[in-house]
Design a protein that fits this description.
By secondary structure, the protein is an all-alpha fold. It has 2 domains: 181 residues, no CATH class; 204 residues, no CATH class. Helix 11 packs across helix 12. The radius of gyration is 23 Å and the shape is globular.
Length: 468
């Protein structure tokens, strides 16, 4: 669901109006069955909103959902004590749509050099990576904890709760399923107030910061020989992708709170991190936990002598999860090597300011590997940024000359607004002890609402992670 589009809010309002009307009309007849009606209505609302995004997305989501549920039901009925042999069939089946739409072109045409033209330019169904991983986690958790299957309607609400279905957070069974099992539609002023503050912050992140940063990027993305332009593009992209993805996550968090559901906070101000480990504890939290629990720990985690190889595998796989291309592999490898180096350093830690600068250097350098998909161009840009002699006065003058007076002012004001937001995030984390606390104060909400009206671009941009 694109929270930045009025269409989403219109469909949501329409769906809720129908549900409330039917609920009021049938309340007396439903009696004790009213909670069951609410849960069925919730999954109906989620399916409606997903179908409005894309019928292909809806069909694949439903196929993977039913496949995981009934596949797991079959395993539990036939041999729950030794399920591994069946998982070797079920898990690849659940992954098959993801493997086809996201990786077949890269694997067959890019790696093996085949010429399957029909695979080129496949559009990845929205949310495919997110809901596939959530369903796989459900299967593995159910078997690991030897728990019974929930009712189908509760399971469908768990994997189809509309605020988080297309871009996370990737929720775990023990966190979200109990909330779905006791879900009812009801009005709660505290839920609405708290949820609204998160929604406003999320929309501000997306529509004021991320979308305006995106408009400033193109002039700097073409240079391969000017390190200042490359770094400026890196910084703009790094800020954009954070405020874009975190913006979606915070709106999802807020909308869920309206319904009395508490999702996992998927971002916790990662650009306030003073180490690369802290960065990954704050960035895309649920994906990091997923790889920790289902890849890193099964490989042996940090308890074995080959812990460095385990870290490398996890981050290379994480890079591949983000996209099918050698640039994503390199992005994951860079982060993996940074984490290995920090762990090798042992207990030594630099001062907080130095640690923050080092972490930001590594993170923003790695973003180059994320947005530059042309492999030869990527290597050339990396060479330029890591060559000290490239940082000449002439290159700096050329960078400043590329900005007209008006464009320079706009960029400076935008970066100033971003810096102010980051400062408030840092205060929230370090002083208030609560993520985004300062940004959810009434005065901040009022200011961001005004800025949304004044500065949101007229053109609506899809969220970046819809493509993952």
């Amino acid at each position: 669901m694109n929270f930045a589009e009025l269409r989403f809010w219109g469909y949501l309002l329409l769906g809720l109006t129908v549900i409330v009307t039917l609920r009021a009309a049938c309340r007396a007849r439903l009696g004790p069955a009213l909670p069951q009606f609410d849960r069925v209505a919730l999954i109906g609302l989620g399916m409606l909103l997903l179908a409005c995004v894309s019928w292909l997305t809806y069909a694949i989501w439903l196929g993977v959902a039913l496949g995981s549920y009934y596949g797991l039901k079959w395993i539990l009925a036939h041999d729950a004590r030794a399920p591994r042999k069946y998982l070797f069939v079920l898990i690849p089946l659940l992954l098959s749509p993801l493997l086809y739409y996201k990786y077949s072109d890269f694997a067959l045409n890019g790696v093996l050099g085949c010429q399957f033209d029909t695979l080129r330019g496949l559009i990845i169904p929205v949310g495919l990576s997110f809901y596939t991983f959530q369903k796989i986690a459900f299967v593995l958790d159910t078997l690991a904890y030897k728990e019974p299957l929930p009712r189908l309607v509760d399971y469908l609400n768990f994997v189809g709760f509309f605020p988080q279905i297309v871009a996370g957070p990737i929720e775990r069974k023990h966190d979200l399923l109990p909330q779905m099992e006791r879900f009812t539609f009801r009005w709660d002023k505290d839920w609405i107030d708290k949820g609204t503050s998160w929604v406003v912050v999320g929309l501000f992140f997306k529509m004021v910061l991320a979308d305006n940063l995106a408009q400033r990027m193109p002039p700097f993305m073409q240079s391969t020989a000017n390190p200042y332009m490359i770094w400026l593009a890196n910084v703009l992209f790094g800020l954009r992708i954070y405020y874009d993805f975190a913006g979606y996550s915070l709106v999802a968090y807020g909308v869920a709170r309206w319904f009395g559901v508490k999702l996992t906070l998927n971002f916790v101000s990662p650009y306030c991190a003073t180490s690369i480990q802290e960065f990954w504890r704050r960035w895309h939290v649920t994906l990091s936990h997923w790889f920790r629990d289902y890849v890193y720990i099964p490989l042996g985690g940090g308890r074995v002598g080959w812990w460095g190889a385990n870290l490398a595998v996890v981050f290379v796989v994480s890079g591949v999860w983000h996209g099918a291309g050698w640039n994503f592999v390199l992005w994951g490898a860079v982060h993996g090597l940074c984490l290995i180096a920090v762990r090798w350093a042992g207990k030594w830690s630099p001062p907080a300011a130095v640690g923050w600068l080092g972490t930001m250097f590594a993170a923003f350098l790695a973003w180059l590997c994320f947005y530059e998909t042309r492999w030869p161009v990527l290597l050339l840009k990396l060479q330029t940024t890591l060559t000290p002699t490239a940082y000449s006065i002439e290159a700096l003058q050329l960078t400043l000359g590329a900005l007209t007076g008006g464009e320079l002012i706009v960029l400076a004001l935008l970066l100033g607004l971003t810096a102010t937001t980051l400062a408030l995030e840092a205060w929230s984390v370090r002083r208030a002890g609560e993520p985004y606390a300062a940004l959810r104060r009434p005065w901040a909400i009022a200011g961001m609402t005004v800025l949304l009206v004044l500065l949101a671009p007229g053109k609506t941009n899809a969220f970046i992670y819809f493509a993952f």
